[in-house]
Structures are given as structure tokens and as C-alpha cells.
Amino acid sequence: LRIMRILDEQFLEYPTHGVLQMQDFLLTKGFVINEKRVRRLLRKMGILAIYPKRNLSKLGQAKYIRPYLLRGLEITKPNQVWETDITYIPMKQGFLYLFAFIDVYSRYIVAWDVCNSLSAQNALRVFRKAINTHGMPDIINSDQGSQFTCLLWTEFVEKQTTSKISMDGKGRALDNIFIERFWRTVKRDYVYLFPVDNGLELFKGLNQFIEYYNNKKPHQGIQRRIPATVYFGAF
User: Fold this and answer.
1) Could you report how far apart the first and last alpha carbons of the chain are, in Å?
2) Contacts for 113-122: CB closer than 8 Å, 24+ residues apart
3) Angle at CA 15, nearest 5°, toward 9 and 17?
4) Any bridge partners for residue 112, and if so which?
């Protein structure tokens, strides 16, 4: 768990570092572990270095990849584009994953939850929560993770909603940048400062922080306004 926490912080600062660079970094911290173990831990955390690479999606998943729809798109209103992703959250005695959906126009977190796996079922559950509360976005953008390049996700979005699916290009650092910036904020301002013992404590702490983020914290990306003010003020 200590090694995973160190890897998580390093990835937040240097998302282009792959297995070998992470292995070298751990060596400087006094951890002598082999390449295979570093790769296994990064996979367990859902971390993949950002760099241009060939499309190595497994057969059977490539057919669920959708094109990136945000290039050159002017985003002018709430619920036009949501972004989603999953991130590793360390605790004192374990770890969980945080799923979230962010409205790009306002930077408002429309739904989130913590889960014990990286499954598509969890991503879909949080998405249902978001659309039941706030309606459907015109476009939902994600990376090409296995949670989204699968039948469960694409079939629900394309057959049971009016939203269009957009997916990041392989190895592109900026396509899903707004949810990535939120991860930096929540980890630096809460997770790393206030390590918790268990999932219940983590949920309560994240709930308090995200309430603050949505309703009280000015955001430089929206002219120092508050996300909730921008999101709800536009309707």
C-alpha cells in the first residue's frame, strides 16, 4: 500500500512515466522491486502512462471504441459535455476507486461514488445517478478503459439515452483534461492531507470536500466563479 501511494503521487506529477521510470523512481526511495511487480501494481491502480502508442486493445473490445467528438467543439452550456474517469484513492488500510462525472462547461461534479472495483457496472451505476438527477448530456466523454469499451456501457448509452459517446485518442493527455484536473484537486486538497482508515470515513470526507468544491470553491477555469453557480445559473 505504501508503494502504491508513492506511485500514485508520482503519476499525478509525471503522468508520462512508464513502468521503467517508475521502477527507477522507487529505487531512489529505497524500494528494490522488479519490473513485473511495478507493472502489476500500476494495473491494479488503473494507471497507464500517457504517451503515443499503437492501439493494443484486446480483440472484442476495439469494436466498442468510439471517435473523439470534442475536437474544435465550442462548449456553451451545461449538460452539453460531461467527462468521466476513475482514479485510485489510497487509505491507511487499503484503497478504493473514485468514479466521477464532471460537467465541462461549469466544472460541476454531477455525480460520483467510491467503489471497490474498476468494473463497468460501477461506472454505469454512477452515470445513472447523474442522469436521474441532472438529465442527459449531449456528449459523454471518457478514455478507452475497459469500463467504457464494452457492450454494457455502449449499449446502455446508445440505446437507452440520447447522449453520444466520445472517447479519447490513445495516449492523448488533454482529451479528458477537466476530470484529470479534478483528480489533482481532490487528491492534493483532501486525500493526501487527510488519510482515512476505512471506506465509510472516505465517503464522508469526499462528500464534504465535493460539496465544498461544487458550491463554495471558486474555479479559475470559469473566471473564478463557483461551479454550482455556473451550472444552475445557466438554466
Assistant:
1) 44
2) 114/89, 114/199, 114/202, 114/203, 114/206, 116/199, 118/46, 118/86, 118/145, 118/146, 118/147, 119/147, 120/146, 120/147, 120/148, 120/150, 120/152, 120/153, 121/152, 122/97, 122/147
3) 95
4) 100
Query: Whole-angstrom Cα distance, residue 113 to residue 65?
Result: 24
pLDDT tens by residue, 99-158: 999 999 999 999 999 999 999 999 999 999 999 999 999 999 999 988 999 999 999 999
- Kindly report the average pLDDT of the chain as a whole number: 91
| CA distances from residue 72 to 69, 162, 216 in whole angstroms, order as listed | 9, 22, 31
What lies within 8 Å, CB to CB, of 12 at 6+ separation is: 183, 184, 187, 188
CA-based R_g, the chain, Å = 18
Backbone conformation region of residue 180, classed left if phi is above 0, alpha if psi is from -120 to 50, else beta:
alpha
From the CB of residue 152, how many other CB atoms can be counted at a distance below 10 Å?
15
pTM, two decimal places:
0.87
Question: Measured between alpha carbons, how far is 100 from 89 in angstroms, rounded to an integer?
Answer: 13
- Helices and strands in the chain, H and E counts: 8, 5
Instruction: Read off the amino acid at residue 7.
Output: L
Residue 61: pLDDT band (50, 70, 90) is confident
Q: Which of 24, 45, 44, 42 is nearest to 33 (CA)?
A: 24
